[in-house]
Amino acid sequence: VHPGEIYGFLGPNGAGKSTLVRVLCTLITPTGGRARVAGFDVAEDADEVRLRIGVALQDAALDGKQSGREFLLLQARLYGMTWDEARSRLDELLALIDIGDAIDRQIGTYSGGMARRLDLAAALVHRPQILFLDEPTTGLDPASRAKVWDEVRTLNEDMGMTIFLTTQYLEE
User: Alpha-carbon distance 130 to 25, whole Å?
Assistant: First the structure.
């Protein structure tokens, strides 16, 4: 996959799409072969890979008790941003994900589409080179699905981000 491309990995359930994403994101070690992400071996240079990627998996790991704002600020701080940098980045991300005042509500009150967009924002908080999206529209209503695809196009076209995604079927 070349820098700045959107690469879709299509296949039915059980084909290994999510497993491949987990290998490329260093969540599991490959049992054979080699894989490189952003020029680094996923097994030998996992820390270097992790610094350069953003990941939004099929099942978002969101704490329903936190507000969206608390969650994103925590993610930014975990990536070493100062409080001022984190707040500034949050403002940028809010413009992208468009969840309005819900950012200050508990995540447990979010719709599926809002939670998916918040998870996408968390994957982008540190401005990764490459974004991995595993089944990004699964379980979303048509309006939320269209919003996610609009965000993917914006990230790719306006920011030149490389995007690797999995899906069961081609939506567009």
Answer: 10
Bridge partners of 167, per DSSP, are: 10
Rounded average pLDDT over 77-103: 90
| 70-79, 86-95, 118-127, 148-157: range with lowest mean pLDDT | 148-157
Query: Considering the entire predicted model, what is its pTM?
Result: 0.87
Tokens of 113: 């589409």
3-state helix, strand, coil split of the chain in percent (to 5) is 45, 15, 40
Give bridge partners of residue 37 from the DSSP assignment: 40
Cα separation of 39 and 32, whole Å? 18
Q: Which two tokens stand for residue 92?
A: 């940028």
Give, in order, the Cα–Cα distances in Å from 18 to each of 21, 31, 35: 5, 15, 15
Residue 85 has pLDDT above 90, yes or no: yes
The label of the residue with tokens 């070493």 reads 80
Cβ 3 vs Cβ 131: under 8 Å: no
Give strand pairing partners of 41.
36
